[in-house]
Write a structure and sequence with these properties.
2 domains; single chain; 6 strands; 4 helices
Length: about 140
């Protein structure tokens, strides 16, 4: 049976207890790693800057394929910016960013785990701007 490593456990501990409940159930059935739980405003802003440049005092998208998020953590908070975090980013282990099928397979397991423990979650892979590692609670 898979289990979390030390770093994944540390990151999971920064999350809302409902997320922890879901992920502790999901890890029993699928091997994955925790990439992010809570993110500071500075960490969020660094992700926001990816694919953008400061032009005339405004952040403009210069490389659309590299844009990671629309949320800067300052004027628009991510659910990762709350403490505890209302969001988590996870990836199938070992990580292969090109294998989207594994992310979708993992998402099915996580959604089933959420039902099992009675927690309502939202999956970023179901959004228009797909975010395959992302899950959140309200």
């Amino acid at each position: 049976m898979p289990k979390f490593g030390k770093l994944s456990l540390e990151r999971l501990a920064t999350c809302d207890e409902r997320i922890q409940k879901v992920m502790n159930e999901a890890i029993k059935h699928y091997d994955f790693t925790v990439l992010y739980g809570h993110r500071s405003v500075e960490e969020q802003f660094e992700l926001f800057r990816q694919g953008r440049s400061l032009v005339g005092g405004w952040w403009k998208v210069t490389e659309p394929s590299k844009v990671v998020t629309q949320l800067d953590g300052k004027t628009k908070k991510s659910n990762h910016n709350y403490n505890p975090s209302r969001a988590i980013d996870i990836a199938p282990y070992p990580i292969d960013w090109k294998n989207i099928d594994r992310f979708l397979e993992m998402a099915k397991v996580v959604k089933e785990a959420a039902k099992t423990v009675g927690v309502e979650i939202t999956y970023g892979g179901d959004w228009k701007m797909r975010d395959y590692p992302h899950f959140e609670v309200k």
